[in-house]
Every structure is written in structure tokens, then in C-alpha cells.
């Protein structure tokens, strides 16, 4: 009997420390609920958030919401009170930076991020609040739900969760954080960014495209885990979207794979940077599917310690 107890204690310890975690798509779907996706998205894009700009103060309301969510869900602060402060165009703002587990300086780090800010209020006729539901309450919702999911487990990498300020003013928040963490010696392996995942990609449901698709093995490795999830979008290459969101700051500063997942393909949403970018226009079921598939895919990449590297052009 004693032996049995000892043996089961031993196997329990082993399971907790070394055995691979069995990630089950169905289980993940039941944890990343549609109700929560809707509730976060509708909160972040409500009129109360005044378009999430630091000038209107709405950004800070959205930031308070994210910080409260982090505190409730065991996402620990990477900086005091989660804040990485910066001044953009004379206005003080901050990125929100959290951490899964305890940060270990000697470990490789993976970053998952999205910009939380949007265009604020513009004195145009009619609707003056630019709610930015798709751009980028949607990506922010994805990042915080994925963070809550990942925070249930122990990982062999550091995982930094970042919500950026002032993307719409020229990727200011992302550059600030990238330059700060390289100075602080963070060993960034790769960065995954989420932008505008609120509508259904024309090629099909539960799909995204990756910017800078051919610059690294990220899309291939993700598709090995979730087949056909990550698409190549020709317009993304033509318009060089790789350089147009926060991922680019991390690529430039660290020279590592840093890329954006998105489902906005220029055919499926007419309200990009318009006041009509509102929650009611989004496909919440599809967005929830994208978030849970991303959570599953990222969990497998992390668990299997898959190397993501740049593909050097010949
Ligand atoms: Zn955006």
C-alpha cells in the first residue's frame, strides 16, 4: 500500500513537471467561450471607451479593464502595475505588459501581442466615436483570452503578453517596448501579433493570414499543428502589411520572426478606420473559433519548443 502511494505520488510529480500536456481542441473551445469573447469585445469597443485613444482618456479605461482581467487570471506584471510608460506627441501613455508564470532571465522568451489603442473621437458629422471593434478590440480580445488559457500551465519559455499603446500614431508603443526589453537583455525568440480578426477571411471560416508569410517558418509550423489555418494573402505582400503593425518593431529591433495574424483581407470589411467599425458588424462565432485555434496552435508550438526562425533570402 505504502509502495503504491509512493508510486502514485512519484508519477503525479512526474506528470506535473515533465510530461507533455495533452491539449485537446474541444477542451480549449469549452474554455475560450463565445460568451467571454463577446463580452470582452463589446466592452473594449463600447462608446464608453471613446475610441481607446490616450488623448480622449478612453485608452486608460480600456487599459484598466485589461489590467483587472490580468489580475483575475494569474497573468503576472512584467513591470510594476503592468505599465511600460511612454510619451507620444506630448501625451503620457503606457503599454500593458504581463507575464505567464515567473520570468527567468536565462530562458528564451516568446511574445504574444496586439495594439489596444484606436483612433479616438473625430469631429466629423454623425457618429464621432471611432470604436475600433475590429481594429483592434478584436486582436486585444484574442491576446487576453489566449493569455488566460496559457496561464493555467507551466512553460519552458518565458511568455510575455503585451497590449500596445499608440500603434495608430506610428507603432510608438511597440517600438518603445522593443527597445526597452532588448536593453534589459530579454532573449526574444519570436513574436506573434493579432490584428483585425473579427470578420471571416474570404477563403473560408476559421482561417487567418500571416504577414511576412515567407520570411520565416512560422506559417508552416502553425499549419503542421492546425492544417490550413494560416493562409498566404497576396495583398498582404503587395501592401507590405508586415511593416504596418506592431510586429515590425520587434522584427527590426531583434531581427527575429515577428509577424501578424489577421483576417481582414480588404474584401470582407468596409469599415477599416471608419466610425462604423463597430462590434455588431463582426462575426463573433468565427472570431471565437480563430481565438481558440490560435490558443491551441500556440500552446503546441510552446509545448513542443518548435524553433521559429527567419528564412534567409538566397
Ligand atoms: Zn490595427
Verbal overview:
The protein has 314 residues and is an alpha/beta fold. The protein has one domain (23-303): 3-Layer(aba) Sandwich (Aminopeptidase), CATH 3.40.630.10. The chain is 38% helix and 18% strand. The strands form two sheets. Strands 1, 2, 3, 4, 7, 8, 9, 10 and 11 form a nine-stranded mixed beta sheet that branches. A hairpin with a 2-residue loop joins β2 (83-88) and β3. It starts with a helix and ends in an 11-residue tail after the last helix. The model is unreliable at 4-17 (pLDDT under 50). Bound molecules: zinc ion. Zinc ion binds next to α5.
Give descriptors for this structure.
alpha/beta, 10 helices, binds zinc ion, 9-stranded mixed beta sheet, two-stranded antiparallel sheet, globular, 18% strand, Aminopeptidase, 38% helix, 314 residues
Amino acid at each position: 500500500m505504502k509502495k503504491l502511494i509512493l508510486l502514485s505520488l512519484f508519477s503525479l510529480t512526474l506528470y506535473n513537471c515533465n510530461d507533455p500536456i495533452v491539449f485537446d481542441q474541444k477542451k480549449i473551445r469549452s474554455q475560450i467561450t463565445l460568451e467571454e469573447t463577446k463580452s470582452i469585445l463589446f466592452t473594449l469597443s463600447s462608446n464608453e471607451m471613446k475610441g481607446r485613444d490616450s488623448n480622449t482618456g478612453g485608452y486608460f479605461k480600456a487599459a484598466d479593464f485589461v489590467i483587472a482581467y490580468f489580475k483575475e487570471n494569474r497573468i503576472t506584471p512584467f513591470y510594476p502595475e503592468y505599465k511600460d510608460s511612454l510619451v507620444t506627441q506630448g501625451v503620457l501613455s503606457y503599454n500593458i505588459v504581463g507575464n505567464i508564470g515567473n520570468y527567468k532571465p536565462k530562458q528564451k522568451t516568446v511574445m504574444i501581442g496586439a495594439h489596444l489603442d484606436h483612433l479616438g473621437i473625430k469631429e466629423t458629422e454623425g457618429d464621432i466615436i471611432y470604436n475600433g471593434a475590429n481594429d483592434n478590440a478584436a486582436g486585444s480580445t484574442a491576446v487576453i483570452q489566449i493569455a488566460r488559457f496559457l496561464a493555467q500551465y507551466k512553460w519552458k519559455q518565458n511568455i510575455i503578453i503585451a497590449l500596445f499603446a499608440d500603434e495608430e500614431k506610428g507603432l510608438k508603443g511597440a517600438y518603445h517596448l522593443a527597445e526597452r526589453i532588448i536593453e534589459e537583455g530579454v532573449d526574444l525568440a519570436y513574436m506573434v501579433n493579432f490584428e483585425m480578426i473579427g470578420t471571416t477571411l474570404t477563403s473560408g471560416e476559421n482561417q487567418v493570414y500571416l504577414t511576412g508569410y515567407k520570411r520565416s517558418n512560422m506559417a508552416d509550423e502553425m499549419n503542421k499543428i492546425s492544417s490550413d489555418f494560416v493562409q498566404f494573402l497576396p495583398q498582404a505582400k503587395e501592401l507590405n502589411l508586415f511593416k504596418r503593425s506592431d510586429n515590425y518593431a520587434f522584427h527590426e529591433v531583434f531581427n527575429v520572426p515577428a509577424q501578424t495574424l489577421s483576417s481582414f483581407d480588404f474584401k470582407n470589411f468596409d469599415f477599416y478606420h471608419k466610425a462604423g467599425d463597430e462590434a455588431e458588424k463582426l462575426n463573433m462565432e468565427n472570431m471565437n473559433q480563430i481565438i481558440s485555434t490560435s490558443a491551441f496552435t500556440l500552446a503546441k508550438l510552446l509545448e513542443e519548443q518548435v524553433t521559429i526562425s527567419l528564412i534567409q533570402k538566397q
